[in-house]
C-alpha cells in the first residue's frame, strides 16, 4: 500500500511541478508595475485595421462597432472588417449598414474562428495596412485602444495584446470569480512575462499582429484555442508579443451555469488538446538549447488553477508528512500568493475580495465538468456561440 501511495504521490508531484514553477516565476515580477514602456513617438502614419470575427452576432455587433467608433482618433468605417462567417442571421447586413467592409464566408467543412481569421488575413494583408487588430464581436474597447496600438507598431513591434477583462463581474459569483481569474491569467501573467523579457502571450481577443508577422507566419491555426496554438508558433519563430497594460477589451461572461459550463469545456478542453500536441515540440526545442521556449512550455503544462489546487490538496493528504507534503504545502502557498498579487496589481475591489469565500464552490463546479472537458479536447474547432444574458449592467 505504501508503494502505491508513493507512486501516486510521485505522479502528482510531476504533474504539478511545472505549474508550481510557472506560478513562482510569474507572480512577483508583476509587483514592479510596467518596467518597460514604449516611448511615445509620431504614430500618425501607422495604418491600422480591425478585423472582427463574427458568427451570428447581429445582436452584439452594434455594441462592438459603437465602441470602436467612439475611440480617440477612430478608424474610417471601411477599415473595420467584419467577417460574417457561416452566419444564418443578419450579421452581414448590420455591418454593411454601419459602413464596415464585410467579408462573407460560407464553408460548411472548414468551420471555426481560426479558419475565418486565416481567410480574412489573406485578403486584408493585400491592402496598405501596417497591422491587424482582432476584436471579438461581443466586445467593448477602451477609448485609447487604437492609439495604444498605433504607438506600439510605430515602435516596430511584432505583435501586441491588450488587457482582456470581464465586462460583467457583478452578474453573479461565477462571473465575479472569472473576473478574478482574468486578473491573474490576463493581467498579472502577461505583465510579469513582459518584465522578464518573455513574449506576453495571445489571449484570443484584443490582440494585434504586424503585417510582416502575418506574412511571415500565416494564421493557419485551427484548433478551439487557435490563439494559444498561434502564439506557440510565434515564439518558436523568435517573435515576441508586447503587452499593453494601459488599455483593455471588455467581454461579458455567460451568466447561467449551462452556458458557463459550455464555455469552460471548450476553453479548457482545447487547452488540454494543445498541451498534448505542442508539449513535445516545445520540449524538443528546449532540449536543443532554445531556452526562450522554456517559459511557454511551463505555461502550457500549468493546469487551470482549480485543478492545480485540487491535485496539490490530494498530495498533502497522501504525502504522509514527508517531502511530497512539504512540496504540496509550498505549492498551495504559491497559488494563494499568486491570486493575492494578481488582485493587488489588478486593483481588485472589496466585492472581489469577498467573492473569494465562494471559491471552493466554484472549484467543485469545475471539477464536475472534467468529463466534458476531456470530451471537448477531442473535438474540432467549429463555431459555438456562447449565450450571454443581456440583463446585467454594461460597461
Describe the fold and architecture.
This protein has 395 residues and is an alpha/beta fold. The chain is 52% helix and 12% strand. An 8-stranded mixed β-sheet has the order 3-2-1-4-7-6-8-5, with helices on both faces. The chain is globular, with a radius of gyration of 21 Å.
How would you sum up the global shape? globular
Count of alpha and pi helical runs: 15
Give the strand order, joined by hyphens, for the main sheet.
Answer: 3-2-1-4-7-6-8-5
For the record, give the distance between the C-alpha atoms at the N and C termini, rounded to a whole number: 56 Å
> How many strands, which pairing sense, and closed or not: the largest β-sheet?
8 strands, mixed
Percent of residues in helices = 40-55%
Percent of residues in beta strands: 5-15%
- Assembly context of the chains: single chain
Radius of gyration: 21 Å
H/E series: HEHEHEHEEHEHEHHEHHHHHHH
Estimated structural class: alpha/beta
Number of strands: 8
Mean pLDDT: 89
What layout of secondary structure does this protein have?
Blueprint: H1 2-27, E1 48-54, H2 61-69, E2 80-85, H3 91-97, E3 101-105, H4 113-124, E4 131-134, E5 139-141, H5 145-154, E6 159-166, H6 173-196, E7 207-210, H7 211-216, H8 226-236, E8 241-251, H9 257-287, H10 294-301, H11 305-318, H12 323-345, H13 350-355, H14 359-367, H15 370-377
